[in-house]
Amino acid sequence: MKEQAPDTQAMNSPVASSEATSGGTRVYAQEVAPPVTLSVAGVSEEGRATGSPAEPPVFSVRNLSVYYGKNLALKDVNMDIRPRRITAIIGPSGCGKSTLIRCFNRMNELIPGARVEGEVLYHGENIYAPGVDPVVVRRHIGMVFQRPNPFPKSIYENVAFGARINGYKGDMDELVERSLRRAALWDEVKNQLKKSALDLSGGQQQRLCIARAIAVEPDVILMDEPASALDPIATTRIEDLMQELKQDYSIVIVTHNMQQAARVSDETAFLYTEVDEATSARWGILVEFGPTSRIFTKPLDKRTEDYVSGRFG
Amino acid sequence: MSSVSGEVAAGASAGTGRKWQRRGLSRRADPLFLLLAALSGVLILLVLAYMVISTTGTALPVFTKEGITFLTGKEWSPSAGKFGALPFIYGTVVTSVIALVIAVPLSLAVALFLTEYPVPRRLRGPITYAVDLLAAVPSVIYGLWGVFVLLPLFLQPAADFLNKYLGFIPIFAGPPSGLSYFGAGVILAIMVTPIISSMCREVFATVPDSDRQAAYALGATRWEMIREVVFSHSRSGIIGAVMLGLGRALGETIAVALLIGSRPVVDASVLRPGYSMAAVIANQFQEATGDHIRALVAIGVVLFAITIVINMAARAMVWRFSRL
Ligand SMILES: Nc1ncnc2c1ncn2[C@@H]1O[C@H](COP(=O)(O)OP(=O)(O)O)[C@@H](O)[C@H]1O
Ligand SMILES: [Mg+2]
Question: pTM for this structure?
Answer without folding.
Answer: 0.80
